[in-house]
Amino acid sequence: MKQTKISRRSFLLGLGAVSTAALLAACGEAASSAPASSAASSEAPASSASEVPAAPILTEDEFPVTDGSTACIPLIAQIMADTTGMELEAAQSAVTTNTTAWAWRNLGLYGDTENGTRLIIAYEAPESVKEELKADGAPLDQKAIGRDALVFIVNEDNPVQSLTRQQLRDIYAGKITNWKDVGGEDADIVAFQRREDSGSQTLFQKLLIQGGELMDAPTELAPAMMGELVDDIAEYNNAANAIGFSVYYYISEMYSKPGLRLLAVDGVTPAADTIADESYPLCNEFYAAVRQDSGPDTPERKVYDWLSTNAGRACIQKSGYVAAQ
């Protein structure tokens, strides 16, 4: 079976030779924006939008090279299994991804190479990557296929149960520095962030910060990987002091950690039902994208269109995600 994804290490090693050889609309207060570059087009709905395929639409070898966000790995595996008929366990072992930023780059900038990315399932691209794609990338077709949410994580011993969006903004701006100021113990707040090119940091800045003040996090409080952030919050030596963020699906289904819990925001606890009905205030969509020059009979276009069918939406829901309406 063809590999679903080349590793980021292999990609970076081959990047120097590219010239000669191949290498989630925010709800609540957030303003909506396109997930990648302005070169992406609006498109007509797939003609098969209401049809449920009776059989797989691809062979295992035909499944396109796919990249995406870490939190989308289970969904990519389910898509692979449902569209090819392969066992889910085999699909899960075949799927690897890069960061959200690199997934968008790999499609828009390098997707026309021999082993290049043909399809991505990813959260919104960082603004810097949108600018790269706008300047140098190929036009993309992209659509929202599901909804997730930005969630905040604290130690289970922290007595604070809920924060408002304004309190969270003030914490991350350095204006509120002690938990006693938001109903907790007399202890300094240690606020973890992610690095700038991560999908969760992009959502954090879009949904919560919205161009406002943001303090610079020390390197040790800005881990590179999403799992590292969860680990760091759980293992911080003054555990009840720490706060950080992730996306709901990752922390609830992929990388839960004993001793941590999710905060309510504006009194609403993040859960599948509050994300589905948009009562939780920090929701955002995630996307499928292909290059516009992908023809109607290419494997990636077939999968992309299939995601808008009843079978595709059922696949998203079966994976535990909230499907876009």
Automatic annotation (TrEMBL):
Q: Does the keyword Transcription apply?
A: no
Q: Provide the protein's localization.
A: Cell membrane
User: Which Pfam families does the annotation name?
Assistant: PBP_like_2
BP-aspect Gene Ontology terms: phosphate ion transport
In terms of superkingdom, the source organism counts as: Bacteria
* GO terms for cellular component: plasma membrane
Leader peptide range in chain numbering: 1-25
User: Where the protein is mainly located, per its record?
Assistant: membrane
Residues in PBP domain copies: 131-296
Q: Can you tell me where the transmembrane regions are?
A: none
Q: Which UniProt keywords apply?
A: Lipoprotein, Palmitate, Phosphate transport, Signal, Transport
Key word Transmembrane helix present: no
Q: How does it sit in the membrane?
A: Lipid-anchor
Q: How does it assemble?
A: The complex is composed of two ATP-binding proteins (PstB), two transmembrane proteins (PstC and PstA) and a solute-binding protein (PstS).
Family as reported in the entry's similarity comment: Belongs to the PstS family.
Q: What does this protein do?
A: Part of the ABC transporter complex PstSACB involved in phosphate import.
Protein name, as recorded:
Phosphate ABC transporter substrate-binding protein
